[in-house]
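Issue: copy button drops trailing tokens. Both records pasted manually instead:
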Amino acid sequence: MENLVGILLAEVQLAFSTSGVPKNYRSMVLQAVATAFYNNSAVTFGVLENNNFTGALFQNWLGFMPKFTLEFEIRRILFGLGCILKTNPDQIPQLVKDRLPSITK
């Protein structure tokens, strides 16, 4: 799982650091991130923290939220965010704990 999350983070970096990337590609990558949180939020947070990418991921994710318009996209995102809320608080990085109000909004 850790290797897959690492590969996914590389895709997130590519999707949000390159201009001209289609909206649907960014959407799909963030939906995959949500699925990673759904499958194992502790491991996903661990990989994010080990790569010093937590802040960048959530900045991109929260900034993209208004662009999720299709029902299946919204469902995937909600499942992932819901699993973050169910994560043991000791496994949630402080940066995310501090932003939980904006994440749940």
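Record 2 (pasted manually too):
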Amino acid sequence: MSRLCLLALLGAMFVLAGGLVGQEAKKDDPKKDDPPAKVKGKLPQYWGKIGLSDAQKQTIYTIQGKYGTEIDKLKAKIEELETTRDKEMKAVLTDDQKKALQAALLGKDK
């Protein structure tokens, strides 16, 4: 049992030492003074025709990224709610009504 504890302790030391070495290398990184990487994105329709500067484009791309994640989450939530709503509405229908609805959706009106 003591060998297992010793091996676990040695493994933890190697992991921690590796993390510290990686942090020291980052401090000496010459890229620290480089300008920030350009953000990529897509301008809304017609925005590219109004003479935006590169700085304005970068700011717009940053704003899009800031709100994009939250908008995607909300769209997913809306889709989830619509799916749940549709299931609940279909649960109200009789079997014959479900078949008629399916036929109507497939364009097979009888």
